[in-house]
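agent: user wants the structure for Scyllo-inositol 2-dehydrogenase (NAD(+)) from Pontiella desulfatans. delegating to structure tool.
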Amino acid sequence: MNTTRHNFLKSSAVLGAAAAFPSIVPSTVLGQGGTTLPSNRATIGIIGCGSRSRSCGEYLQGDNAEIVAVCDPFLSRRQTRAKEWNVQDQYADFREVLARKDIDAVHVVTPDHWHVPISLMAARAGKDVYCEKPLGLSIEQNLAARAITEKHNRIFQYGAQQRSMQHLRMGIELVLNGHIGEVKDIYAWAPAGQSGGSTEAQPVPENVDYDLWLGPAPKAPFSEERTSNRGSWYIYD
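agent: tool returned. relaying tokens verbatim.
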């Protein structure tokens, strides 16, 4: 048989694969024993590694998803989550996560001012998105998030998941169908806020990309409270 370049490359690939294939293959690789094939698992990048991101560890409780990358402008924060979840790939810049073709979806756990901008860029990059609440800083941002995710045919959800809980959906149906009679009063409840704290400017710590943390928010001096939950009383957007 005449050996062509195509046949050579084809046969070499087959032989190379056979030589590299392990003699004992774990059943998890083949999807046996009730496990999920690696190719059927959703690969997720976590963007934002502050205190709220602790809940993202729930992805590890099943076998249909895996966290493959963590991202945060604070080196210490992304290192903490990477160690906690046994994730190898760490990034300061979320754009590096969005550029990866092997990531199916991202979970946006950043400060509020980054929620919609990152969600829009993720949808344009072909990623599905789960975004923590609040969604946007304005109605216009919220409408843009909906329009872009629909345009790119992406799955999008933000963290108002209680609206999807069965007992709340049942309550909505009861009200809409008139089963409780005429609704005359509506009472809204919100958790108490907090006030106080220091506004004194501090030097930006090493291994913190503060400009990236600020992003689209107005320029403001660094302080530890501004960049942590203790500074939730700040208004900087």
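agent: one observation worth passing along. The domain at 31-164 is CATH 3.40.50.720 (Rossmann fold).
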